[in-house]
């Protein structure tokens, strides 16, 4: 057991939200390394397959340079049926996403990948169902002016102004922010991380 406690945790993520969520749970990684991978979805790739592939690739990319550590990676997408909504890069993309999500239910999927020494890779997928109210043009315009949705999966951040758009949520709230804490902690404990 002493060997397991000696394992350091590396977060394979460029997302400050993921580091913040871990800190909220009292987990501070020894290092944070942003993985460099191609995040382009494959042709006809479904949301579950995509997030799982991304999380695995992130963990594997960072594991190469972090030998002997636990590598935690995650990927989150907003899915409307079989369609993966983009990580909105600008206001136009945020607006397109919000118009698609307005008055509809969607899913937020996060895949977790934990790479342990000895080429062991454990994965989980967490799904949260979210429904938005019908958004007025003024609400969309106000949200665009805040620039809050830029850089976010599906063009919104539930932990900000967009929380007022949510009329229904079923599942993990922290998953929608970017890291399902309950499942993450269970995965870490199952791999011998002392928390």
Compact description:
The protein has 195 residues and is of the alpha/beta class. It has helices at 2-5, 16-24, 47-63, 91-101, 137-146, 173-177, 181-190, and strands at residues 9-12, 31-33, 70-80, 83-85, 105-116, 120-132, 166-170.
Structural summary, described in words:
By secondary structure, the chain is α/β, with parallel strands linked by helices. It has a single domain, classed as Maf protein (Alpha-Beta Complex). It has helices at residues 2-5, 16-24, 47-63, 91-101, 137-146, 173-177, 181-190; strands at residues 9-12, 31-33, 70-80, 83-85, 105-116, 120-132, 166-170. Strands 1, 2, 3, 4, 5, 6 and 7 form a seven-stranded mixed sheet that branches. The radius of gyration is 17 Å and the shape is elongated. The two termini are 13 Å apart. Mean pLDDT is 93; it is low at 1-5.
CATH architecture: Alpha-Beta Complex
CATH class descriptor: Alpha Beta
Secondary structure tally, helices: 7
Report the sheet with the most strands, covering strand number, pairing sense and barrel closure. Answer: 7 strands, mixed
Write down the CATH topology. Maf protein
Low-confidence stretches: 1-5
Distance between the termini: 13 Å
Order of helices and strands: HEHEHEEHEEHEHH
Helix content: 25-40%
Mean pLDDT over the full residue set: 93
Q: Find the count of extended strands (DSSP E, 2+ residues).
A: 7
**Rg calc:** 17 Å
Please indicate the count of domains.
1
Give the amount of beta strand, in percent.
25-35%
What best-fitting shape do the alpha-carbon axes yield?
A: elongated
Helix/strand class: alpha/beta
């Amino acid at each position: 057991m002493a060997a397991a406690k000696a394992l350091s945790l590396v977060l394979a993520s460029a997302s400050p939200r993921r580091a913040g969520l871990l800190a909220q749970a009292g987990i501070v990684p020894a290092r944070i390394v942003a993985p460099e991978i191609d995040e382009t979805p494959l042709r006809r790739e479904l949301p579950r397959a995509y997030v799982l592939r991304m999380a695995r690739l992130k963990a594997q990319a960072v594991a190469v340079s972090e030998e002997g550590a636990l590598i935690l990676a995650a990927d989150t997408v907003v899915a409307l049926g079989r369609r993966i909504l983009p990580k909105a890069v600008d206001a136009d993309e945020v607006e397109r996403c919000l118009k698609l999500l307005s008055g509809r239910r969607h899913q937020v999927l996060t895949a977790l990948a934990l790479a342990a020494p000895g080429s062991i890779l454990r994965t989980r997928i967490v799904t949260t169902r979210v429904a938005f109210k019908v958004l007025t043009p003024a609400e969309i315009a106000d949200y665009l002016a805040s620039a809050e949705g830029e850089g976010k999966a599906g063009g919104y951040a539930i932990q900000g102004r967009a929380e007022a758009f949510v009329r229904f949520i079923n599942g993990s709230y922290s998953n929608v922010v970017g890291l399902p804490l309950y499942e993450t902690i269970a995965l870490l404990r199952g791999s011998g991380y002392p928390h």
